[in-house]
Design brief:
The complex is a heterodimer of chains A (636) and B (291).
Chain A: H1 3-22, H2 28-47, H3 54-70, H4 78-95, H5 99-120, H6 125-148, H7 156-183, H8 196-199, E1 212-213, H9 216-221, E2 226-231, E3 241-247, E4 249-250, E5 254-256, E6 274-280, E7 287-288, E8 290-291, E9 294-298, E10 303-305, E11 309-311, E12 320-326, H10 351-361, H11 366-376, E13 383-384, H12 393-398, E14 402-403, H13 405-418, E15 423-430, E16 433-435, E17 440-444, E18 448-456, E19 460-464, H14 474-479, H15 482-502, H16 506-525, H17 532-560, H18 563-577, H19 588-593, H20 598-617, H21 623-635
Parallel strand pairs in A: 13-14
Antiparallel strand pairs in A: 1-5, 2-6, 2-17, 3-8, 3-15, 4-5, 6-12, 7-11, 9-12, 10-11, 15-18, 16-17, 18-19
Helix pairs in contact in A: 1-4, 1-5, 1-6, 2-4, 3-4, 4-5, 5-6, 6-7, 18-21, 20-21
Chain B: E1 2-4, H1 6-25, H2 28-53, E2 55-60, E3 71-79, E4 86-93, E5 96-103, E6 108-115, E7 121-122, E8 126-132, E9 139-148, E10 152-153, H3 177-180, E11 188-193, H4 205-211, E12 215-219, E13 226-230, H5 239-256, E14 259-264, E15 267-272, H6 275-286
Parallel strand pairs in B: 13-14
Antiparallel strand pairs in B: 1-9, 2-3, 3-6, 4-5, 4-8, 7-10, 8-9, 11-12, 14-15
Helix pairs in contact in B: 1-2, 5-6
The chains are: A alpha+beta (636), B alpha+beta (291).
Chain lengths: 636, 291
């Protein structure tokens, strides 16, 4: 079979596979063009060769690329590119002649698969990747053969052997790549900060600090770095508040937590509490985050306060894993009445604010009071904005009525306090991208958020988020970009890397060693054999394998058996008894004549002549002749 | 030894660039790509190495080799592997190469390639190596095998008049006198290895095709002449030319079945009509002035 035909067939198969992968995302026009080109290509390569102008094809390719680039819109990014790549693939199939044409086809196939990954946003494209990788490896092998021996031929069995090699090489590459992946040198400090989008993952990261100044969260939100990943079942969108630190002291410009050195005991976990495993990135913070409102954290030592803040004893500078139990329903109760400080406001606060709050203080019910304040803070009076933020709270409330979450939350807290309701700010994260493949939430600095908590007599603490819900937050903006979509998909690998490699620390290692030791000692102490059942199964399996291998060998043997050869080697064994060696190149008769003992020589010649007669003259070794020859041998 | 091809350089540069990006960004996706690229390179290197190591090479040269005329060398390649075939093997002997696309497991293949020797006398040993692009054409891996030992190269054959009767040659340089020997001469006496200058029509095509070597028919010849070549008498010209002419005459005489002798200076070789004798005389000519 011609190598070229096999190579072309494989190339068409790869193209078909990649086409199938993106089939449901392709524009009808691209479908038609690709199929038309593919049919033309198939006719050209397999049925009736004809000439195609390369210039024409190149011009067509450029036109296709311009067309698909011009179709790109912010909300339609990948589809036009996939269409373009698909048509290019058709053109290249038609053109395929030189080695580089084939390489380009393989690259286009990979691009299509990448497009599938971006379009479907699932890891399922890896299942397309495996067969495509196999096909491409095999094609590369054939391409090398074809390039070295143009228009050559290979026997049919060579192709199956090549396929086996391609499979073996692909299969072996996976474990080798795994080992390399684990041992490749890693550093947290980029050598060159070329890619700022990813580069911020390293040093110089900032998270929430102890004080939150107005406008400061915006700075955090500019960072696309991952803060933590939370392994948990999917949650309701409205519950996605990741609680961090409680800010209850306001000095007119900034909020900060009051330093109470209190070690409140953990609440006990109740049924219905949401369990999460958090993988925290190092940001130099001592606050641990969890779904609002966390009640218990394991297994790292923490001190928790009754307001639902959990802190470790020293800032975290390495990746950390911990488990959290949270109780999402709100309102919730805290032990004891709220601190009177929660009504405190700085004396420097502008009197205009008290003026503003005065009408609300006349409302008797605290619930009604809060509703009125919330209503006041809603659009169209107030707008969500990320730029040109007001200079302070007064500016926000009276002139420049646009701002981000801190302005809204601060305004609500201050107005609540002015109207006699204890209030505080909570700093944390809102939302997160759920990764279906990994089963976890990915939370970025972009999700940084501040909301308000108020205490209503008889009800408890209520979470109030005055930030307009329809606001386009930085996290949502980011989610629309291509980079982010790709990143969320690919973060699965980071997640598993974290779980498998980073989570594998000294303690786990020691635990493993201890377990191995325990196993060894238990084995040496109690030489209790495996159960009868297991033993029987094992013996059966071993016997089965042995019988199977024996059968295989016998079949091979049988196929390889050649009666002439067997007779010859039997003769050689006989000769050996008399001290003669039958050399490979020596004839049977020749060797017989070289025997010194006349009687033996006579008998050997007897056999030799009969052997020659049967093998060389008659060229037919019937069973009778064979028996006769064996008789001769026995007499020898 | 490994030489990197152009495609290989592209691959290496790509891998290094992606590796740098991985370290720089600490992004695991890029680490995965780097490790796959590296792993693929490693595995393909190992596959290429095993492919090359499985090959055994045997070289066979014809009994008579003349300077400046191509000698057919038989390259025999054997795949030692029990389960896997061998692909894309080229065997290089000096500047010449034989190429084998595919060798099934436990099998062998032969190819005949012309090999040139420029000078008469003992040729220096020629390095022999096997090379392969397998599996992806990124690297050319080579392995030195036993060199071709030094061989004796007889002088170039320069046609010169045969002493007994003027030599009549066809347009192809074949000895026409052979065509005229009719009668019982057509009796096939034996088949021997092809020697330079044998007429094409005397090649035994069937046996050549069967064995993969060029074989020439030899016919019986009733009458015998005697020819003695006196090198000094041919010395009107330069030594090399004289040696070439002498070699031609000895060869021609032997082909006619004539007994041939040689006079070199004061050494005398009695005329005889055997192949061994012919080769002895040619050896004397080949080594003339060399020791």
């Amino acid at each position: 079979m011609k190598t070229r035909i096999a190579l072309l067939s494989l190339t068409f198969l790869s193209a078909a596979l990649s086409y199938g992968a993106v089939f449901s995302f392709v524009h009808p026009g691209a479908h038609a063009t690709f199929l038309g080109l593919a049919v033309l290509a198939a006719v050209r390569h397999f049925v009736h060769p004809y000439l195609v102008s390369r210039h024409l094809l190149n011009a067509l390719a450029v036109a296709v690329m311009i067309l698909s680039l011009s179709r790109i819109r912010p909300d339609l990014l990948i589809e036009p590119l996939v269409d373009g790549v698909l048509v290019l693939l058709g053109i290249k199939l038609l053109e395929a002649r030189l080695g580089r044409d084939y390489l380009q086809i393989y690259l286009l196939c990979l691009f299509l698969l990448l497009g599938l990954g971006l379009l479907s946003l699932s890891i399922s494209f890896l299942f397309y990747l495996a067969p495509l990788a196999f096909l491409l490896t095999l094609s590369l092998l054939l391409l090398t053969v074809e390039a070295a021996d143009p228009n050559g031929q290979l026997p049919r069995r060579a192709f199956s052997q090549l396929a086996f090699l391609a499979g073996a090489m692909g299969g072996l590459t996976v474990p080798v790549a795994l080992i390399l992946f684990v041992i490749l040198p890693r550093t947290n400090f980029p050598l060159l900060n070329l890619l700022t989008a990813f580069g911020k993952a390293g040093a110089g990261r900032t998270g929430f600090s102890e004080t939150v100044r107005l406008g400061e969260v915006t700075a955090i939100q500019e960072d696309a770095a991952v803060v933590f990943r939370v392994q948990t079942a999917p949650l309701r969108e409205k519950d996605l508040y990741w609680r961090g630190l409680v800010l209850d002291r306001f000095d007119g410009a900034a909020w900060s937590p009051s330093r109470r050195v209190v070690f409140d005991p953990f609440e006990s976990v109740q049924p219905g509490d949401v369990h999460q495993i958090v993988f925290m990135e190092p940001f130099g913070m001592d606050v641990l985050f969890g779904l609002d409102r966390p009640v218990s954290i394991h297994p790292i030592p923490v001190r928790g306060t009754k307001d639902g803040t959990f802190r470790v004893f020293s800032p975290l500078f390495k990746k950390t894993r911990y488990e959290v139990w949270s109780r999402p329903p709100t309102p919730f109760l805290e032990e004891g009445p709220p601190d009177p400080d929660l009504l405190h406001l700085p004396p420097t606060l502008s009197p205009r604010l008290s003026e503003l709050a005065r009408p609300w203080t006349r409302i008797a019910s605290p619930g009604e009071r809060l509703r009125a304040i919330l209503e006041f803070l809603q659009p169209p009076r107030f707008h969500y904005a990320l730029e040109n933020l007001p200079s302070d709270l007064e500016d926000f409330l009276f002139q420049n009525r646009k701002g981000n979450c801190e302005y809204f939350a601060s305004a609500l807290a201050v107005l609540a306090r002015l109207s006699g309701i204890p209030a505080r700010l909570v700093g944390g994260y809102r939302g997160g991208y759920y990764n279906q493949a990994g089963g976890y939430y990915l939370v970025l600095q972009k999700h940084a958020h501040v909301w308000t908590e108020v205490y209503v007599e008889g009800t408890g603490w209520m979470r109030l988020d005055p930030t307009p819900p329809a606001a386009v937050t930085p996290a949502e903006l980011y989610a629309r970009s291509l980079l982010a979509r790709w990143r969320v998909l690919m973060d699965t690998l980071n997640y598993y890397w974290f779980r498998i490699v980073v989570d594998y620390d000294v303690e786990t290692q020691l635990a493993l060693i201890r377990r191995a030791q325990a196993l060894a000692s238990s084995l040496s102490q109690k030489p209790k054999g495996p159960s009868k059942e297991a033993l029987r199964t094992a013996v059966l399996i071993v016997m089965g394998v042995a019988v199977f291998m024996g059968l295989c060998l016998a079949v091979r043997r049988r196929a390889a058996r050649d009666p002439t050869r067997e007779l010859r080697s039997a003769y050689a064994r006989r000769l050996k008894r008399y001290g003669y060696d039958l050399k490979d190149w020596e004839g049977v008769e020749e060797s017989a004549q070289a025997i010194h003992d006349a009687a033996v020589r006579e008998r050997a010649l007897h056999f030799a002549r009969a052997f020659h007669e049967a093998v060389y003259r008659n060229q037919n070794l019937s069973p009778e002749t064979r028996r006769a020859l064996q008789d001769h041998l026995r007499r020898l | 030894m490994i030489r990197i091809t152009r495609a290989g350089w592209i691959y290496v540069v790509l891998t290094v660039a992606v590796g740098f990006a991985a370290v720089n960004t600490a992004n695991n996706l890029i680490y995965v790509i780097t490790s796959v690229l590296l792993g693929f390179m490693l595995i393909s290197g190992i596959a290429g190495k095993f492919n090359l190591e499985a090959v055994q090479v045997q070289l066979a040269l014809p009994d008579e080799i003349y300077a400046e005329s191509p000698a057919p060398m038989v390259v025999r390649v054997r795949n030692r592997r029990r389960f896997l075939p061998v692909f894309l093997i080229s065997v290089h002997v000096g500047p010449n190469a034989a190429f084998f696309t595919y060798l099934d497991r436990k099998s062998e293949a032969t190819q005949t390639i012309p090999i040139h020797f420029a000078r008469r006398g003992l040729s220096p040993p020629m390095p022999v190596w096997v090379a392969s692009l397998f599996p992806f054409g990124f690297f050319v891996r080579t392995r030195l095998v036993d060199p071709l030992p030094s061989v004796l190269v007889f002088p170039k054959l320069t046609p010169s008049p045969y002493p007994a009767a003027p030599l009549d040659r066809t347009s192809k340089g074949e000895d026409r006198s052979l065509e005229r020997h009719t009668g019982e001469d057509h009796d096939l006496r034996s088949i021997r290895e092809y020697q330079a200058g044998d007429p094409l029509k005397k090649i035994h095509w069937k046996s050549s095709a069967r064995t993969g070597r060029w074989l020439t028919k030899e016919f019986s010849m009733p009458a015998r002449d005697t020819v003695v070549v006196d090198l000094d008498q041919m010395r009107g010209q330069d030594v090399e030319k004289a040696l070439s002419c002498a070699a031609f005459v000895i060869n021609a005489a032997a082909r006619r079945g004539a007994a041939v002798g040689l006079l070199v200076g004061n050494r005398r070789y009695e005329p005889q009509a055997s192949l061994a004798h012919k080769r002895k005389l040619l050896t004397v000519l080949a080594l003339y002035g060399e020791d």
